[in-house]
Amino acid sequence: MAHLKIATFNCAGLSVTTRRKAIFDYLPKLDAQIICLQETHSTALDEHKWAVEWGNPYALFHSNKTNDRSNGVAFLINYPDISLTNWHGDQHGRVVTADFKASLRKLHITNIYAPQSGYSKRERTLFFDSLYSYVHSPHPTILAGDFNCVENPALDRNPPANRQDFTTPLRELRETLGLQDTLRAAYGDVRLFTRRHANVQSRIDRFYACSKITPLSEQALPGLASDHDIVVIETNTVITPKHGKGRWKNNTAIYNDQTFQTRFQHQWEQWCTLQPYFFHTKTDWWSQTKTRIQRD
């Protein structure tokens, strides 16, 4: 039994084979069952090939539909008893959303790579406004990824900034859908940075979750060949391996036990008095009896 762990990572491109292999070898060691990737730089022609290369046990890559290598997002599943269904994404390779089934619980996860600060205010507003249809779900919901902005520049940037970053559409989205910043929910006003660029550190890689999901822990781990850290949260969702009926094995050594033989004889005599004699021998009786025991 284990709590569900989810990771998000801006991997800064997977198109170079050696780099992709190194990242695919590294990510399973995180002990995260679901991994959200951004900026994969995949195309439609890469998606199946890269999913096969992952093979741990399943991957979903979503690319820019113009077939250039900009953007790209992905879900990697790193646990055999988690399934993914009902996925869809945008045309630009910046959003992918899906339902996940972990044990008996379903989760809805949306993975985003938001436009960078160089995009216009209108373009960024349109992006966050478009997320309502992706994030809304009847199932417990998580929004993850690279948001390319911070909500509290005084707390989530180093050095701190007095200006307000572009966050109004994002704030309206999470307030409307009842999403909380998982780091703040778990640790309050602790400072944690996930990206280092030039002389600035910031927390642009984040998770938001609905009230039905309790964040138990959150940490930032060094990314591989990227200026982004890998952010991993642990949630209250419990996952357990699926078990079949198992194999029933008859312990033949007990046949030589005197207590068993005595009890067997007694049961046989009682059986004969309760109903017509359906079995020719005790062996026939035992063969059908143990089959019923096994089946029940």
Structure commentary:
Helix 3 (121-130) packs parallel to helix 6. By secondary structure, this protein is α+β, with helices and mostly antiparallel strands. The protein is 29% helix and 29% strand. The chain has two domains: 2-239, Endonuclease/exonuclease/phosphatase (Deoxyribonuclease I, Chain A, 4-Layer Sandwich); 252-295. The chain has helices spanning 17-26, 44-54, 121-130, 132-135, 153-156, 168-177, 182-187, 258-274, 282-295; strands spanning 2-10, 34-38, 58-62, 73-77, 82-89, 95-102, 105-113, 141-146, 157-158, 180-181, 195-197, 200-202, 205-209, 215-221, 230-239. It has a six-stranded mixed beta sheet.
Descriptive terms for the model:
six-stranded mixed sheet, alpha+beta, 29% helix, elongated, 15 strands, 296 residues, Deoxyribonuclease I, Chain A
